[in-house]
Hints:
This protein has 157 residues and is an alpha+beta fold. The chain has a single domain (2-154), classed as Aminopeptidase, CATH 3.40.630. It has 4 helices and 8 strands. The chain has helices spanning 16-26, 37-43, 89-103, 119-125; strands at residues 2-3, 6-11, 49-56, 59-69, 72-80, 108-114, 129-139, 145-154. Strands 1-2-3-4-5-6-8-7 form an 8-stranded mixed sheet. A hairpin with a 2-residue loop joins β1 (2-3) and β2. The longest helix is centred in the middle third of the chain and has 15 residues, at 89-103. The chain is globular, with a radius of gyration of 15 Å. The relative contact order is 0.16.
Amino acid sequence: MSASGLVLEAGGAADLDAVMRVMEDSFDPAYGEGWTAPQCAGLLPMAGVWLTLARDGGAIAGFALSRVIAGEAELLLLAVGSKRQKSGIGELLLNRFIEDARRRGARQLHLEVRDGNPAVRLYKRAGFSQVGRRRNYYSGRNGELFDALTLARTFDD
């Protein structure tokens, strides 16, 4: 898929350094939402896990890390570099996650997002609704705690 020079493609362990640069650029450490390189590297080889990259001229502008297990798919991470946010890349990655999850047999989709994260609007526009809240789920840089919203979506057909 491409839109205005952007290409979505499968990624892997060889892309982890670039993925980490995007994550560090897009997730404010004050909220404790980002993952470490070992966390990502440990998940990538697991069954049902896939990484989607948004490339612009070869550079990674964003990514989505996802998994599917027993008919349920979870969007683990979605990040877009700070200079490219609000340009539609996040929506493209989210739509690709939804398509890929359906193709992999998922009937239900899940994700967690920090309460107050502007991405909540994107997820709700894509048909996700809040089904839960995890109190004090994220631990920020200064020890401040933030709730996570659990969002879900099912396929209608």
